[in-house]
Write a structure and sequence with these properties.
92 residues, 1 helix, mainly alpha
């Protein structure tokens, strides 16, 4: 049979081991949550970067990009004039 001091030592050692095991579990959970959180932030940042490069944030709110509207004033083409040929022969 052990002494009272020895029993206290055994009890304290067992309690210390339990606390260390609990601290290790908490640390593992925190580390895993931190990794997943950072991974999620990196993924979101990647999507935003790709959207930015693709032009999603250009500020052009015109949804009818491919549709053109006629001009209010019609375009006019300049008149082409053909000069008269100059004759090189001299006829009286």
């Amino acid at each position: 049979m052990g002494t009272a001091k020895r029993e206290r030592q055994k009890t304290n050692r067992a309690l210390k081991l339990q606390e260390e095991a609990k601290a290790a579990r908490v640390s593992t959970v925190k580390r895993g949550a931190l990794r997943w959180g950072i991974g999620a932030l990196v993924a979101i940042a990647g999507v935003v970067l790709i959207a930015f490069i693709g032009g999603a944030f250009d500020g052009d709110s015109n949804p009818d990009v491919g549709i053109t509207t006629p001009l209010t004033t019609p375009l006019t083409t300049p008149e082409l004039t053909v000069p008269e040929p100059v004759s090189t022969s001299s006829t009286p």
